[in-house]
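# step 3/5: fold
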Amino acid sequence: MLFHSAGFLLFFPVVVLIYFIIPRKIRNLWLLLASYYFYMCWNAKYALLLLTSTVITYVSGILLHRAEGRLALKKWIVAGSFVLNIGILFYYKYINFLLGLLGDLARTLHIELQVPVFDILLPVGISFYIFQALSYTMDVYRGDIYAEKNFFRYALFVSFFPQLVAGPIERSKNLLKQLAEPKSFDYERVREGLLLMLWGYFLKLVIADRCAVLVNTVYGDYTSYHGFQLVLANVLFAVQIYGDFMGYSVIAKGAAKVLGYELMENFSQPYFAVSIREFWRRWHISLSSWLRDYLYIPLGGSRGTKGKKYRNLMITFLVSGLWHGANLTFVFWGALHGLYQIAEELLTPVCSRWIQRLRIRTETFSFRCLQCLKTFFLVDLAWIFFRADTLSSAAVILKESFNWSNTGLLLNGGVYELGLDERNLSILALALIALAIHSVMKELRWNVQERLSRQNAVFRYALYWSAVLLITFSLDISGQEFIYFQF
C-alpha cells in the first residue's frame, strides 16, 4: 500500500478515527493490527518474516534482562540475535548476489561451476525493520533501554506502519517509550501532522516524480545522450532521490504526529553541507547514526591509529552501500563516500595552510557557497553509480557527462525532448524554487509552520489549496514507487 495510493487515503483516516474512538487500553493493539494489514497489502506471507524478527529480538531482550550481571552470556544472546536476523536479511537480499559473484569468479578462473539461482522476492522494507529490531537488542544489552515485557507493544514498535517500509529507522529510546502511553486527540497536533503530510506529498508527487520522468528517460537509453543531457539527468536524480526519500520520511512523520507520536528527523538540508562528513550528518540521519553507533564505534571508531580509523570508515561505508542493495554499483557508491571522507581528512591540513597563506575569509557567504558546490559535485558524482544498473554503464555516463558538444540544447528547446514537456518543466522549476525557499528557512532554523500560522488565513489557505491542486494534477505522471522501498 503506497502512501500516495487511493487505498492509503482510505486506510489512514479509518485507522485514525477508530484509534481515537476506542478505549485507550486497546489502542496499541488496534495500531498493531493496522500495521500488519498495511504490510500484508504487499505480500501477506512476508508478514511472517516481520513477526519472526520481532519474536527473536523480543525474546533476546527478555533473556538479556534475566542475564543481568553475566556479561559472557549477554554477549552470546546478542550474537544469536544478530546472526539470526542478519541470516534472514542475507538470504532474502544477498544470496543470489553472492552466488552470482561466485559464478563470475569461477568463469574468470575457467572453472566449471553450476551456480543455483533462487526465486526470491525481496520483502519490502526488510532492511529497515531488521535494523530497527537489532538496535533494540543492542540498546537493552548496553542498558540504554529497559527490556519490554509487553509483546504487543514491542511488536508495534517494530511494525509501526508510518515508518515500517522506508524508515526512519527508529530507536527504542524514542518510539518504544512513546508507545507506553497511547495518545489523546489534539486538534493542533493533528493539523500540524496533516500539513507535514501535505508537504511530503508535494515533495514526492510534484518534484520527485517529475524528476523521475526525465531521469528514467535519459538513464533508460544513456548511450543516446551526452553532455548537458546527462548532467541535467544527474543533477535531477540528486533532486529526485532527495524529494522521494525525504517525501516519504515527512509523510511518515506527519502520519505518526496525527496519531500522537514523534518520529526522528531523517534529513537536515543535506545539500547545504560543506563537506562529505557533514553531508552524512544531514542525509538519512537514522541510518548514518545507526551505522555510527552500532558498527563504526564498536569497530573502534576513531580510537587508535589513523590507519585503523580509515579501515573502520571504509568498512562502515561498504556496509552502507551493501545495505542499499545487492549490486556492485551500491558497493562502489559506499566505497566512494568512504574514500571521500578519508581524502577530506588527509587534505584538510594542506587546505588550511593555503587558506591562511592566501588570506581567504572562511566565514563569508561566498566561501560557504563554494564549499557547498564542491560537496554537491562529489555527492552527485557518486549518485551516478547509485542510479546506474551496472558499473560499466555508470562509467559511460560519467565519461559522456563531460562531452559538452550539445550545449545548444539549452537554447533550441531540446530539453523538452527528455521526457517532460514545457508545462511540466515549468511546474518543476516553480516547485524547486519553493523547495529552495523552504530549505533556506529550515537552514536558518525558522519554524516554517509557526511562521506560516502567523499569516492571514486567505494567504495560508491559498497556499494549501495550491499545493493540493498541484499534487492532484501530478497524479497523471505518478505511479513511481518510493525509491527506498527496494532497500
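# step 4/5: annotate
The two ends are 16 Å apart (CA to CA).
# step 5/5: archive (pending)
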